[in-house]
Amino acid sequence: QFLMANKLDTAMWISRLFTVYCSALFVLPLLGLHEAASFYQRALLANALTSALRLHQRLPHFQLSRAFLAQALLEDSCHYLLYSLIFVNSYPVTMSIFPVLLFSLLHAATYTKKVLDARSSNSLPFLRNLLDKLNANQQNILKFIACNEIFLMPATVFMLFSGQGSLLQPFIYYRFLTLRYSSRRNPYCRTLFTELRIVVEHLIMKPACPVFVRRLCLSSISFISRLAPTVA
Fold first, then answer.
1. What is the largest CA-CA distance in the chain?
2. Is residue 209 very low, low, confident or very high in pLDDT (cuts 50, 70, 90)?
3. pLDDT average, residue stretch 104-121
4. Which of 38, 102, 148, 232 is the most exposed place for a label (fewest CB within 10 A)?
5. Higher pLDDT, 165 or 134
6. Domain definitions of the chain by residue range
7. Does residue 30 or residue 147 have the better pLDDT?
């Protein structure tokens, strides 16, 4: 009754579980490397479906207008719909599947707990214990996801020069990264950029650091800072 009363949430729960399943079989290619590539695409397509359903839930009344598009781009679900489309037809990159896997795992765990509560307050204690441990590490997981989002930017550039990526991919991914940086719901991308800047500045200011390395890092920090969008 609970599942039927929340059909859209249930559909997203199933698609997230399928995303976790496909992502796990890509990261751990138990069925062979050739099959792993197909699971990579399936995971991203399932994530695109979940993101589209979530976006429909957040913005149910679609309008073909600039205002609606601007509003949609503020939603995290729109960001990851774009993310899935960026990588679904690209060369499989293990780094790119981790945000999809971990977000799906976190959201699926939250809804699984609701399903268990609807069934019985004491049902499946072992599974509840695992879900509680996952929830306790949520902040660390979100930071890891943000770190993946950041380091995928140079990875897309490397893929371009190695012949495994398209010319447009780094530019489209840069747009995705600016959306994540400006996210209203998830500040971890901004936080990680700040923390990485503090760590790098601390290291390069040590006397043992060569002058040319210090200048190169300071120039890179200045360049990246200029590219960062303004956050209200």
1. 67
2. confident
3. 87
4. 232
5. 134
6. 1-185, 188-231
7. 147
Q: Tell me the two tokens of residue 81.
A: 């719909």
Q: How far apart are CA 7 and CA 203, in angstroms?
A: 52
Is 1 a residue whose pLDDT tops 80? Answer: no
**pLDDT (average), residues 23-49:** 89
The closest of 55, 49, 58 to 18, measured between CA atoms, is: 49
d(CA 23, CA 94): 9
Tokens of 202: 């601390």
Summarize the confidence of residues 178-182 as an average pLDDT.
91
Helix runs in the chain, H state only: 2-5, 7-27, 33-58, 66-72, 76-87, 94-119, 125-136, 138-161, 169-181, 188-204, 211-227
- Asked whether the beta carbons of 41 and 57 are under 8 A apart, the reply is no
Angle, helices 94-119 vs 125-136, to 10°: value is 130
pLDDT of res. 232: 60
Q: pTM of the predicted model, to two decimals?
A: 0.88
Please state, as a whole number, how many other Cβ atoms lie within 10 Å of the Cβ of residue 185: 9
Integer Cα distance of 40 and 49 in angstroms = 14
Torsion angle of C-alpha atoms 187, 83, 139, 151, degrees rounded to 10: -90
**Burial category of 38 from C-beta neighbours within 10 Å (exposed 0-12, middle 13-18, buried 19 and up):** middle
Distances (CA, A) of 123 to 10, 13, 30, 130: 19, 19, 31, 13
